[in-house]
Design a protein that fits this description.
about 350 residues, TPR-like_helical_dom_sf, mainly alpha, single chain, Serine Threonine Protein Phosphatase 5, Tetratricopeptide repeat
Length: about 350
C-alpha cells in the first residue's frame, strides 16, 4: 500500500503507511522485508527533498540487502543513493555509485533496472553539460529500455536525447526524437507527458521566430501558419489538462507569431491573455517575455504611455528576481521614452539609475 501512495506521489500518506509496515516487519524479524520497506521509505524522503534523511534510510536498507545477500535489492538501493547524490549536485560521487550499481545489475541480469541506471548516468552528464557523454549513455539506456519493453523509460530517454540535440543546435533531430516519444505517450495514454513533449516540439519545431530574428522576414511569415498550428495543438491540451503555466507560455508564443505576421490586434489579444494568467500564477519569465513583446507592438504604434506602464512592471520583476542588468535595461527604455516625451529631467534621473545598476 505504501508503494501505491509513493507511486501517486502522496508522500505523507506513503510515509505513514510505510512506518507502520516497517514496525510489523521488525516485529516479525523479516530482514529482507525490512530492507525493502526502508528502501521505499528512503524514496519518500527523496520525493520530499529531505536528502539527508533519504541517505540515512537508504544506507540502512543497503546494509540489510548485503546482510541477506539480496544483490538485486542492493543494486536498486544503490541507484537511489546515486540519485540522491545527483540531487545534492555531488555528481562525481553519484557517478561512482551508479557504476557500482550497474556492475551489480549486470551480474544478476537485472536488465530492467540497468536501463534506469544507464539513464541516471546520462542525466548526470547532462547536468555536467558533457553532451557527447549524455548522448552516449542515453543511447545505451534507450537500447536497454527497448530490449525489456519498458515504454515509460523509453520515452523519457527519447526526450533527453532530443533536449541534448536541441542544446547542440540540431533542432531537426530534436524534433525527430520528440515525435518518437510522443507516439509512445499516445500509445500508453500518458496525457500529462504528451503536453510536455508537444510543448518541446513547438519550441524546437517552430521556425518563424528564429528566421525573423535573423532578418529573414518573408521566410518567417511563410513558416507562421505551421507554427500557429503547433501552438494551437499545445494550447488545446494545456486547457484540457488545466495547466495554466503551459497555457500562458503558449499564448505568449502565439502572440509572437502574430507579431511576426504584422497582425498586432491578434498579437495583443494573445499577449494580454498570457499576461493575465502569468500574473495569477506568478510565472515571471513568461510574464517578462510577454511584456517585452507588447512593448515592441506599442513602440510600433507610438503608444509611449503604455510602454511606460509595461516597463515599470518589468522593473518590478527584475527587482523581485534580483536581476540588476535586466533592471538597468528596463530603466534605459523608460529613460528614452521620457526623453522623447520632452520630460528631460525624468529621463536623466532614470538614465543615472540605469547606469548605477549596470555597474
Amino acid at each position: 500500500m505504501g508503494e501505491v501512495y509513493l507511486g501517486l506521489s502522496q508522500a505523507d500518506k506513503a510515509s505513514e503507511v510505510l512506518q507502520q509496515a516497517l514496525a510489523i516487519r521488525r516485529e516479525l524479524k523479516d530482514r529482507k522485508g525490512e530492507g525493502e520497506t526502508l528502501d521505499n521509505l528512503g524514496s519518500v524522503y527523496l520525493l520530499k527533498s529531505q536528502y539527508d534523511k533519504a541517505l540515512e534510510t537508504f544506507q540502512q536498507a543497503l546494509a540489510i540487502s548485503r546482510e541477506v545477500k539480496d544483490r538485486a535489492g542492493e543494486g536498486r538501493t544503490l541507484r537511489k543513493i546515486g540519485v540522491t547524490y545527483s540531487n545534492l549536485k555531488q555528481n562525481p560521487k553519484a557517478l561512482e555509485i551508479y557504476n557500482q550499481t550497474l556492475a551489480i545489475q549486470q551480474e544478476v541480469g537485472d536488465k530492467f533496472q540497468a536501463g534506469y541506471t544507464l539513464f541516471s548516468i546520462a542525466v548526470t552528464y547532462d547536468d555536467l553539460q558533457d553532451y557527447p557523454r549524455t548522448l552516449e549513455w542515453s543511447k545505451k539506456s534507450l537500447a536497454a529500455s527497448r530490449e525489456v519493453g519498458n515504454r515509460f523509460l523509453e520515452y523519457r530517454v527519447l526526450n533527453l536525447i532530443s533536449t541534448t540535440y536541441g542544446i547542440k543546435g540540431d533542432k531537426e533531430r530534436a524534433v525527430e526524437f520528440l515525435q518518437q516519444s510522443l507516439a509512445i505517450q499516445r500509445e500508453i495514454k500518458d496525457s500529462s507527458s504528451q503536453l510536455g513533449t508537444l510543448t518541446m516540439i513547438m519550441v524546437f519545431g517552430s521556425k518563424a521566430s528564429d528566421l525573423y530574428s535573423k532578418g529573414f522576414y518573408s521566410q518567417a511569415r511563410a513558416e507562421a501558419p505551421h507554427d500557429i498550428k503547433l501552438a494551437q495543438d499545445v494550447l488545446q491540451m494545456a486547457r484540457e489538462l488545466k495547466q495554466p503555466d503551459k497555457e500562458a507560455f503558449v499564448l505568449q508564443k502565439l502572440g509572437r507569431v502574430y507579431y511576426i505576421l504584422g497582425d498586432y490586434n491578434k498579437a495583443t489579444e494573445f499577449l494580454q491573455q498570457s499576461l493575465k494568467i502569468a500574473r495569477q500564477i506568478k510565472e515571471l519569465q513568461t510574464e517578462t517575455t510577454a511584456l517585452s513583446l507588447l512593448s515592441s507592438i506599442y513602440r510600433d504604434q507610438g503608444k509611449d504611455r503604455q510602454i511606460i506602464e509595461l516597463s515599470q512592471r518589468k522593473i518590478e520583476i527584475a527587482r523581485e528576481q534580483k536581476d540588476p542588468l535586466s533592471e538597468a535595461s528596463s530603466l534605459n527604455v523608460l529613460a528614452s521614452i521620457y526623453t522623447e516625451l520632452g520630460e528631460y529631467e525624468k529621463g536623466i534621473e532614470l538614465y543615472q539609475q540605469a547606469l548605477a545598476k549596470a555597474r
